[in-house]
Design goal:
CATH architecture of the largest domain: Alpha Horseshoe
Strand order of the largest sheet: 1-2
Oligomer: single chain
Distance between the termini: 67 Å
Radius of gyration: 22 Å
Shape: elongated
Number of strands: 2
Strand content: 5-15%
Order of helices and strands: EEHHHHHHHHHHH
Structural class: mainly alpha
Number of helices: 11
CATH superfamily of the largest domain: Tetratricopeptide repeat domain
Number of domains: 2
Helix content: 55-70%
Length: about 190
């Protein structure tokens, strides 16, 4: 049984409102197993000790990450979607779902979820999931824009640099020089 706290507050109309709040947001043993990267043990522990109704969004995300590390992408996706349903603006749930969809070759869904994640917070991880899905769907212009944004946030991302280097001719040189800060020789790259 999860512990509950009683919250009392008065609204603007002067009415007393009573609310029960779940204060059990995390399980220390489960969190410790995740931190130690003992994913199989963490999944087993969660199945035995943490009732699904008692799991919060963060627990579902950690469980999804454990399943993903074990290569169980369908179960990981289910965990991320449960967390997302609990909070539609949960960046980590959206990113996890996008990653799972990409790994399962469901690229249309990956685009949708990564775009939602990007709308909440632009990060290199979400940009890369979006670009990966666009590449798989044959949308090079969208992938290029996403990779350029990835490089703006993380100029050391060698995969994005490599993919961006497929732009032909002088434009490729200029993009690489701008985004990597490298002193590149135009003659060698513009072939």
């Amino acid at each position: 049984m999860r512990p509950l706290n009683l919250l009392l507050f008065v609204n603007t109309a002067g009415l007393l409102i009573v609310t029960l709040v779940n204060t059990s947001l995390s399980d220390a043993a489960f969190d410790n197993l995740i931190a130690q990267k003992k994913y199989a043990e963490a999944v087993e522990y969660a199945d035995e000790k943490i009732v699904p109704a008692d799991r919060d969004g963060a627990t579902w995300i950690k469980l999804g990450e454990a399943y993903q590390a074990l290569g169980m992408n369908e179960k990981a996706l289910a965990c991320f979607l449960v967390s997302w349903r609990m909070n539609q603006n949960d960046y980590d749930a959206l990113l996890g779902a996008a990653r799972a969809y990409n790994r399962m070759a469901q690229y249309d869904n990956a685009v949708t979820m990564s775009k939602k994640a990007l709308d909440i917070r632009f990060t290199a991880e979400a940009g890369w999931e979006y670009a990966s899905a666009c590449i798989a769907l044959g949308r090079p212009a969208e992938a290029k824009k996403a990779m350029e944004k990835v490089l703006q946030t993380d100029s050391s991302n060698t995969i994005a640099v490599r993919e961006l280097s497929n732009i032909p001719g002088r434009r490729r040189y200029l993009y690489l020089k701008y985004y990597t800060g490298a002193n590149l020789r135009e003659k060698r790259l513009s072939g």
